[in-house]
Amino acid sequence: MRLMLRCNKGVQRKFAMRLTHVNIIFHLQLPHFRIIWQQCDRGFGNSIPNVAGCTCHDFFRLMASQTRSTVRVDPSRSEPALPRIRPVSPHFIGAKARFQSFSERGEPEASRQRIIALRKALKRLGCDGMLIPRADVFQGEYLPPSEGRLAWLTAFTGSAGFAILAAGKLALFVDGRYTVQAKAEVKPRLVTVVPIAEIAPDQWLKREAEGLTLGYDPALFTSRGLKRFERAANEGGVTLKAIADPFPALWPDRPAAPSTPIIDHPVEFSGENREAKIARVQETLREQKLGALLVSECTSVNWLLNIRAGDVPHLPILRAFVLVPVEGKPQLFTRPDRLEPSLATSLAGAIEVVPVAADGAAEVAAVLGTLARTGIKIRLDEETGALLFAEAVRSAGGEADIGTDPTALMKAKKNAVEIAGSRAAHLRDGVAMVRFLAWLDREIEAATPLTEIDAAIALERFRRETNALVDVSFPSISAAGPNAALPHYRVTEASNRLITPGLYLIDSGGQYRDGTTDITRTVEVKRSTRAMREAFTRVLKGMIAVARVRYPKGTSGAQLDPLARAPLWEAGVDFDHGTGHGVGSFLSVHEGPQRISKLGHAALEPGMILSDEPGYYREGAFGIRIENLIVVEPQAHARDERTMFGFETLTFCPIDRRLIVKSMLSRDERAWLDAYHAQTRVKLAPHLAGADLAWLEQATRPL
Questions:
Q1: DSSP, residue by residue, 231-270
Q2: Cβ count near 159 (within 10 Å)
Q3: For residue 503, what are the β-bridge partners?
Q4: Tens digits of per-residue pLDDT, 51-98?
Q5: Which pTM does this prediction carry?
Q6: For 264, phi and psi rounded to 5 degrees?
Q7: DSSP state letter for 365
Q8: What is the pLDDT of residue 77?
Q9: Shortest CA distance to 475 belongs to which of 312, 319, 331?
């Protein structure tokens, strides 16, 4: 296959690249070009980058439409070639990020008036206070700005939190990731930050709200999520009252609800068409004797129908519901005008689109009520099915079956095409990371003043230069010195620090059409202390332990979690987040049900992608985290008596050798690290040159 990009004017640049058994020749002239097909007689891989402003989606779709052969990925090919990038050492100081902002988001100075207004509104509804989760009707972790009720009221901007407004009190409950951040963001005279490790919200309710009537919005709770508050309320003499959302009337400058275009996620990336996925789900419904399933987790909706949008910052998802009957066409609740014309045509044969006015909750509740009157059993997901929908079914005399949405597990177990795509995405992302780390070392050596924002912008730019980046996976955690002790630190113009001698932590990722990446590296800046190096080595030992483990089928993430913590426990320390979370395929960077944590009870099965990211955080001093993504794979040995699984590492990027206390590593751990660095060098070196290649070779030397 040969592809020509001919320009309208100016001097042409010509270059060639090798892509999964295909030679593509580019004749490129900026800023204008046109695409001419000369020959197309083979399939091509999904690692092709976009070119000169042509979006990855449009470029791929154009190429796919021009070839008669089936576009496919070769799952056996784990190292698709990338275009060689000319080494540069740019200064990014003063530049801007395209995909992330560093401005303050919370408005603590406005909290007083907002709390007063909410109290007045609740009083009119007959309530003394309210339960306020950080949630929307989809129960997702990531919210669009229009759903940020908790942040609007309290100024806390973390991704997990819960507030209870009671008489004279507003308590904000956060986990160990956000304790320090929350205290820094809120007004302490107005909002009391309560670590969940000290007291859970339901127990606080029982102790602090006796005799009060507290409101709650049924759209923001699941049936299971409300039950513990109902139990605590009964024990503590508290009355809970369902109310309509009071925030719209109090929030005059509320951002508009997202309304981004809905695009196709073709089988070249998904590996399975939507009709086949729907058939699998319906077969499961028949096996479980269910009449219908409401898919309420947005990522599952997007996975099931092979669609994507941009309704949530950094997540390529559509916020919508799908109702799947045991027989017939599923119903997608969304605005039809948001669908790309070609996608609308394609979907018409597989599903029915139900027009909605807002987020679809009202329309879904009405349809569920109608179905419930027919007597069928309707499955609502226990994790994401809003209480609003369970009540709609029950009020119509139906049976709301609260259980597991089968699409979550189907989505979690990636097929061969998705895994091959993830390998390709991690390869190009690894090249961008090496270019960034090499640049960072050079700038530090040259004594260039760099801030956390400078570094975050630089890394985004290196990823954008892959010409395949759709978005970042999340705002980069670019953290120097004591800021790195905040596991989910978000750098702002107010918190921005110079990167000074000690440790610098960068946790970041990219959204590519073929995969989602997430990687953390902690690096030495000029010098480090013995305490830093010992802590780093313990974190590394934990990360290696998870990467190397073999385990029998049926093992859960909770059973593997102690492997990452044991080296830290030996020193009397720990970390307050999970060891690993699931990762989607051009979806959410956090995906369930798989996870490696104390709460990770789902069995880890082949195809599941997870992070492996132990850490250590010394408040006010420094933080350390090392993160690779791994995928579960069968690992059979001849003498095994049971089916055994293990992990393939997807992420390839050097781990800072300067921070390793070699004597603390066992022989096997050193062998693993040397082999990992050798693989990293082999995979990435062909795509680097000059100073970047020299840096890689130095950074991957054997211990």
A1: HHHHHHT-EEEE----HHHH-TTPPPPP-PPBEE--HHHH
A2: 14
A3: 524
A4: 333 333 343 343 333 333 332 333 344 444 544 433 334 455 556 888
A5: 0.85
A6: -80, 145
A7: H
A8: 40
A9: 312
